[in-house]
Design a protein that fits this description.
Largest sheet: 2 strands, parallel
Mean pLDDT: 95
Number of helices: 7
Strand order of the largest sheet: 1-2
Number of domains: 1
Shape: globular
């Protein structure tokens, strides 16, 4: 059986879901959110404590890659699919004040939340 996916419909559905994640992180989703999942996949509690709790509450990541990235002071990071910015804030702690982190997302509400934080 062949199934055709309408890319515009799919994009609209994904945006709607992540809009809801930004605006109502306590809602019901088909995936976990927040600090418990971040800790379970490998984020350090100490660094999570240093970033805005509202960014952490909307975290919908599926893995921890910072151990592979080995970020260093002064580096530049591009965070694709940055959402409300938890990874961007986390990376900023690792690259320090001499570094730079740029977050890119396709959900306006997620980016708005990250900018407010």
């Amino acid at each position: 059986m062949s199934t055709t996916v309408n890319p515009d419909e799919l994009t609209a559905k994904v945006r709607k879901m992540y809009r809801q994640v930004a605006e109502n992180p306590d809602g019901t989703f088909h995936f976990e959110l927040g600090r418990p999942v971040a800790l379970r996949v490998g984020y350090a509690a100490k660094l999570l404590d240093e970033i805005p709790a509202s960014a952490v509450e909307s975290f919908a990541g599926v893995g921890f890659f910072f151990d592979f990235a080995d970020l260093r002071d002064g580096e530049t990071v591009l965070d694709l699919g940055s959402g409300s910015g938890m990874d961007a804030f986390y990376a900023a702690r690792l690259v320090g004040p001499a570094g730079r982190v740029v977050g890119v997302d396709f959900t306006a509400e997620q980016l708005d939340k990250a900018r407010r934080l």
